Amino acid sequence: MGQKTIIEAIEEQEWLKTAGDAIQPAVVNAFEAGGEAGKQVKDMLHGAWLGHPLHPAITDVPIGSWTTAAVLDTLELMGEKKYVPGADAVVAVGLVGAVGAAITGITDWTGTTQERRKIGLMHGMLNAGAAALYVTSLLLRRRKKTRGTAIGLSMLGYGVVSFGAYLGGHLVYGKQVGVDHTATAVTYPEDFVSVLPENELAENTMRCVKAGEVPVLLARKNGEIYALAHTCSHLGGPLSEGHLHEDGHVHCPWHGSVFDLRDGSVVHGPATEPQPRFEVRVKNGQIEVRTPKKEKSKKAD
Ligand code: FES
């Protein structure tokens, strides 16, 4: 079975949809039950404060630790007994890191749907299975007569977590989870571009317009006109189809990320990257936008 076939086979599993339908709302409800504090915790776990998803950074801890354990275990099997304490220690460190990876991963998973959600669930189950193997291994490592079994379980866990990591990589590179969907190849306008007659943007409304190739969200709030990238940085949702709140925040219709119209900053995740904002002016009755001069370099790469 080729790589693509494995992914397709996972995507075809209806039981993953059923399980996701049951688990995902329960996790979302748990955060919502916490009110404003629950929102803050969720944003923190997504990595909104970091401007980058937190989950992939934390996964380096278990994967790095367990890779080290595999090397030290192999040396032990070759007769190098001095590495025994180190191997046991890194198995334990990996388990601590796995707890953080699991919590942040489940949080990010709440912002996925359809195939992404299925693959994410399989990714999580594999990693949970790997963690269970490492817990058992750690317990068995203490006794000399079960040490060989313990090392075997660790090796098996390493194989499982490696496949889980492959699925995690596919979620990022194949399904674009956790990447900034505003960082596209299109050229952001450096000079003012006319996008809409001013009288076609009513108070408290949002419109999607084009500045060259770039879809732009226009909104008018309290008489002020604001412009942000229209494509949600989380997974590409159309912001103009979301909600414009009284406080000047925009709510993405797909997974509920909230951005501040004034500067595009993330108010609530799952988005972690801000929306690029545009300078706005009205000239000869036309709304015109351009990339702010100091932010040009961000999209020029
Ligand atoms: S696309 Fe997911 S919150 Fe906007």
UniProtKB/TrEMBL annotation:
Source species of the chain: Pontibacter aydingkolensis
TM segment ranges: 87-107, 119-140, 152-173
Record-given protein name: Rieske 2Fe-2S domain-containing protein
Coiled-coil ranges per UniProt: none
UniProt KW Iron-sulfur keyword: yes
Keywords per UniProt: 2Fe-2S, Iron, Iron-sulfur, Membrane, Metal-binding, Transmembrane, Transmembrane helix
UniProt-listed Pfam families: DUF2231, Rieske
Record-annotated Rieske domain positions: 193-289
Record carries keyword tRNA processing: no
